[in-house]
Design a protein that fits this description.
The protein has 2 domains: 172 residues, Rossmann fold (3-Layer(aba) Sandwich); 91 residues, 2-Layer Sandwich (Pantoate--beta-alanine Ligase, Chain: A,domain 2). 38% of the residues lie in helices and 19% in strands. It is globular, with a radius of gyration of 19 Å. Bound molecules: pantoate. Pantoate binds next to strand 2 and helix 6.
């Protein structure tokens, strides 16, 4: 596996990899890899001839006071995992290479970026859309894979890919969960043992709420109940619990189409997000 930090070297390496006529899948990450990321890599290897991964802790998607400086960085261990999984190229530029002096362009996706995490993390999805579109131009993959755990991020990426006429395929991969149901996340590493145990109540509250919704319970009352259940488990605050259209993420007051239950909540100093599918009962 080649580890590449300069764009001109990346272009040469990509041309070399593509010279056999094979397809390329990109797995963009911010590093601190866990089984969820490796699932993306394995899925990429099933679908394409060559896998390229990127590690870049993107400063433009972190707001003021967020965890950019504390974000876990462990490139050596990450590179080992990626090499063992058969990744051909690890693209690991620094911030200067990604955003050279004078850099001034931002991609902003309206609609699907607003509300949910876009409401509590202003500018976050502009940073994501901008860096991901740069990664697409840099690597020119046939497909790119993203976890459904960041469901709004996936929807934002699908939107700008359609709007800006990118031709690659976007593949969403189901969330990988720990033994107790907590969605794997690099940020789980911040949790104390006590908070880690309490965190399992977060997906549990969502699952139980979904069962009630699918039995026809009132949406507003159910969302309130889920929030109370998360707070009772020891979470400090709940940013949102929302039922949304599974495609465009518009909020729903009734479960009348395929939907997604999405939530973000804070425990200790850690903000966790999760989401699950909700299926309307057919009458
Ligand atoms: O999901 C992530 O790790 C990041 O948001 C991404 C897609 C790599 C962009 O920085």
């Amino acid at each position: 596996m080649q580890i590449i930090r300069q764009l001109n070297a990346l272009k040469t390496a990509i041309a070399d990899v593509k010279s056999d006529g094979g397809t390329v899948a990109l797995v963009p990450t911010m590093g601190a890899l866990h089984a969820g990321h490796m699932q993306l890599v394995h899925e990429a290897a099933k679908r394409a001839d060559h896998v390229v991964a990127s590690i870049f802790v993107n400063p433009t998607q972190f707001g003021e006071g967020e965890d950019l400086d504390a974000y876990p960085r462990q490139e050596e261990a990450d590179a080992r995992l990626l090499r063992e999984a058969g990744v051909k190229i690890l693209w690991a530029p620094d911030a200067e290479e990604m955003y050279p002096h004078g850099y001034s362009t931002t991609i902003s996706v309206s609609g699907v970026s607003m509300g949910l995490c876009g409401g509590t993390r202003p500018g976050h999805f502009d940073g994501v859309a901008t860096v991901v579109s740069k990664l697409f131009h840099q690597v020119e993959p046939d497909m790119a894979l993203f976890g459904e755990k960041d469901y709004q991020q996936l929807a934002v990426i699908r939107r700008f890919v359609r709007d800006l006429d990118f031709t690659l395929e976007i593949v969403g991969v189901p969330t990988v969960r720990d033994h107790d149901g907590l969605a794997l996340s690099s940020r789980n590493a911040y949790l104390s043992a006590e908070n880690r145990a309490a965190a399992a109540h977060f997906p549990k509250a969502l699952r139980e709420g979904i069962a009630r919704l699918e039995q026809g319970a009132d949406v507003t009352a159910t969302l309130d109940g889920i929030e109370q259940q998360i707070l009772a488990a020891g979470f400090k605050s709940v940013d949102y619990v929302s039922l949304c259209d599974a495609g465009n993420l518009q909020e729903l007051a009734t479960l009348d189409r395929p939907a997604r239950l999405l939530s973000a909540a804070r425990i200790g100093s850690t903000r966790l997000i999760d989401n699950m599918a909700v299926t309307p009962t057919t009458t």
